[in-house]
Design goal:
The complex is a heterodimer.
Chain A: H1 12-41, H2 46-49, H3 51-74, H4 80-87, H5 90-99, H6 106-122, H7 134-148, H8 157-162, H9 167-174, H10 180-183, H11 190-195, H12 207-219, H13 226-245, H14 250-258, H15 262-269, H16 280-300, H17 305-324
Helix pairs in contact in A: 1-3, 1-5, 1-12, 3-5, 3-6, 5-7, 6-7, 7-17, 13-14, 13-15, 13-16, 16-17
Chain B: E1 19-21, E2 26-30, E3 39-41, E4 48-49, E5 54-58, E6 65-67, E7 72-81, E8 87-95, H1 116-125, H2 138-142, E9 150-155, H3 164-171, H4 173-187, E10 191-197, H5 201-210, E11 217-222, H6 231-239, E12 252-256, H7 257-269, E13 275-281, E14 289-294, H8 299-306, E15 314-317, E16 324-326, E17 340-344, H9 360-364, H10 371-376, H11 381-387, H12 397-401, H13 408-417
Parallel strand pairs in B: 1-14, 9-10, 9-12, 10-11, 13-17
Antiparallel strand pairs in B: 2-8, 3-5, 4-7, 5-6, 7-8, 13-14, 15-16, 15-17
Classes of the chains: A mainly alpha, B alpha/beta.
Chain lengths: 328, 418
Amino acid sequence: MKGPFIHTKSTSSKIMKSILISLIPFIIFAFYKNGLSLLFKGKIGLFDSLKPLLIIIICAGCTFLFEILYAKLFLKSVDIKTYIKNSYAYIPGIILSLIIPLNTPIFIIILTCLISTIVGRMLNGGYSKSIFNTVAMSVIIIGIFSIINGGYSYLNNYEMTKYSMTPLQNAKEIGLTNSYNELIKPYGDYKQFFVGNVSGGIGEVSILFCLIGLIYLSLKKAIKLIIPISIIMTSFLGFLILGFINGVGVNYALFNILTGAIIFCAIFVAPEMLNSPVTKKGQIIYGILIGLLTIVFRMLLPFGDVFIAVFICNLLVPIIDNNCSKVK
Amino acid sequence: MRNLKLPKYKMMSKNKRIGFYNKPKLVYIPLISGNDTDLTIVGKKGDYIYKGSIIGKRKGDFKLPIKSSVSGTVIDYVQKTCSNGTKVKCVVIENDFKEKEEIKDIISKKMNQYTKEDFINIIKDCGVIGMGKTGYPTYLKYETTNKIDTLIVNCVECSPYVTSDYILLTERCEDILETIDAILEINEIDNACIAISKKDTKLLEILNTFIGTYLKIKIILVDDGYPMGWERNLVENITKKTYDETPMECGVIVNNVSTIYAICEALKYNKPLCERIITFTGDGIRKPQNVYVKIGTPIIEIINKIGVNTENYVVIAGEPMMGKYIEDVDNLVATADLSCVIILSKHEDILPEECIRCGKCVKYCPAKISPVLIKDNENNKEKLSLFKPEKCISCGLCSYICPSKIDLRSIVEKAGEK
């Protein structure tokens, strides 16, 4: 037996459970926003109202199943029972399901889960050795499919009757502007954006729940807190500066930070334990890089800005960490 | 600097009366000084030994004598387990319970009338060593040519379970303050700080009642995190200075409070270091308490005297973070640097899981190294040198904090050896 003879009560599975708990409000919210509330209004039938829940279950189930199957078939050294217990493969699945468009075909979802699980998590020999952020990867894959197939709509049945685009797509059509009337007004007001009563990914749109999740996770010490803070600060400041250079004001920056899943991604995707830096300095650099790249990609690319930024920065993590080890 | 709060487990043995165990039939004086076991044995089997006689001497530069803690006859030389878990050759002395001492010049000086040379000679002759963890000869600290302006008395006891320093300071507060004052005067040191944890309000109360006449001594309250009692941490926290090798470089001497008491006995009565207070605690022992023990006493005798709760107990020599698991408890003997013996009713090794790269080991490492990155590059010698695993102080925080229960400390230690 070797010391220390006392250990912290915190365990890996407790950390994972905290993340799972912080996601539950989003699941309920997604089900309410895209299902129940419409059912009550009489806009859709019972089966359609279960669709958001179905997508979440399929995503979680697929990532979990594919991972276990792969481990069982190809990873000879692992004990499958402990692998199931420790891998928590369904968490990335749930996170993914909250980001993607509501009208993504089920077949595409399953295919994406398969690709990202195998390439992202398994090829290197198990979840603990993955070098990609599976969620970011899956979002990008679905984005590519979406472009090929002419775009999957983010809008639910009710929203479709009112708008033709999400706020972000709308803003991209308009170009640089500071007009409250053009950016925010068509979709309500800032309060609606904060609560999440606007169109976007299935569950990610609620800033309120994002912040609750962030507070819960930081109380539980289950998050690398520096990463979301530096991402959000950098991207907000970046948009603000960009706005001022182009002669548009605060509304532009606020709108951009509130849409496109930046905050959700900063809290639930980017600080994902396995593929983010371990040193404090590294985490700051990682966050700032993601923030900056997000702005660049939002200017240049039609979709997935923040996720592409996370994906690229993930590849840089070993370099960041090796150069930020604190010893002098 | 971020210090981690550990669970304390101190109440079990705090505020309990001090126990005594000063009549062992046989004592086993380990022939070890620091980590050096290559000592010259003085005397032979059958010799009569006075209390305080020299029975072993260190070779080389640190000429520190090993002294007997009882009077009696040398009957054998055997291998016994020491506080660091290794087997060490011990002198077995059969106690005749007379506590006879060699006749020596009676000292009638007041404590502060010694010259600096006398002071150094006395603590050298009495075999005073650092009683915290290191076992570093104390006289070497005072022999420095650097100008010393601060003496820090370490009574932080940041480790869980241990209360031996606490109990010593509460019981012998006056003596200790007097000694500190004398040390300051003899060595021309400007001031002294007694560092205690800010949670120890009772200790503060006791110190405050006695400290009035000692103007040079300050009480410093430090954070109660771990490893606050680490020398480097303490010096940086109190004086805001950093150093490379020893604190003497920046004009600071750090002494454990037990060491100060050993100096006190040396100066007052010319008494060699042959007793110390050891905390016996844990959920496996019937009455957790602090015991005054002669060096060389078999620990099992004391455990049996206090009584245990279960038969299958586990013994840890030292505090829970850095201590060692002792397999053959029957052979463990008390040494000067053993501050605590923990008796647990059960302890199982936890199976490590996969690393989830949470970065907590990096966040809390007091030596500012990155255990997880060292683990990643375990077999890559070139890259390892980048992360400086040799800077590890073996405090065990990384292994403590790891949510996957990976024993990072031994990985880092192993890497440091490469």
